[in-house]
Amino acid sequence: MLREVAANHTLMCMIILAGLGSFFVGASMQAVMPTFAQDLGGDDAGTAYGVLLFAAGAGGVLGGLLLEATGRIKPNVPAAVVSTAIYGASTLVFAVVGNFPLAVVMLLIGGVANLASMSISQTVVQLLAPPAERGRVIGVYGMSANGLRAGSGFTVGLLGAAVGLHWSLALSAVALCVGTAAAAVYAWRGRDRALTT
């Protein structure tokens, strides 16, 4: 019973983390890239755009290789929380930095962290979901991770029309970091409650 309570809190935390990343940043990174390329690359915005897109994609590939090749990062709540927080922090730095090489590095780090966050949280969900409800739980996770991407159109796009894309992406990244911290507290409180009852 205690293990089931802790597992339920962990599952909810993983679903929340996936939803936060999807809702606050989600698909907006690719949509805002031309503006960032123009601001960071100046007269050579076309090349800057290509490099920024490559950096974001390369980060995901690098993250996959690191996760598989090293096997040092275990699928658990701390790893999911830390990787999601790194994704939010690197997105925040990318949004406010005016230095092109640093922006490229932040996209690489963000790509690695985003892939790690999604892979780890999905693995935890698959491992902890009760067999009788596994399909339903994974479906809810998938809806959170993919279905909430439309939210980034509001958090970055609509807000960007009011305050500018750099600020809207920065504010969304801050919200992602704060939400990640809240989800971590929720998971640990659930675990502690299960251990003390």
Automatic annotation (TrEMBL):
Protein name as annotated: Transmembrane secretion effector
Keywords: Cell membrane, Membrane, Transmembrane, Transmembrane helix, Transport
SUPFAM superfamilies from the UniProt entry: MFS general substrate transporter
UniProt entry tagged with the keyword Ion transport: no
Phylogenetic lineage: Bacteria, Bacillati, Actinomycetota, Actinomycetes, Pseudonocardiales
Bilayer topology: Multi-pass membrane protein
Stored InterPro entries: MFS_dom (IPR020846), MFS_trans_sf (IPR036259), TM_effector (IPR010290)
PROSITE patterns, per database record: MFS (PS50850)
Major facilitator superfamily (MFS) profile domain: residues covered: 7-197
Membrane-crossing segments per the record: 47-67, 79-97, 103-128, 140-163, 169-188
GO cellular component: plasma membrane
Annotated localization: Cell membrane
Any single Pfam family the record assigns to this protein: MFS_3
Keyword field contains Transmembrane helix: yes
UniProt-recorded Gene Ontology molecular function terms: transmembrane transporter activity
Provenance organism: Labedaea rhizosphaerae
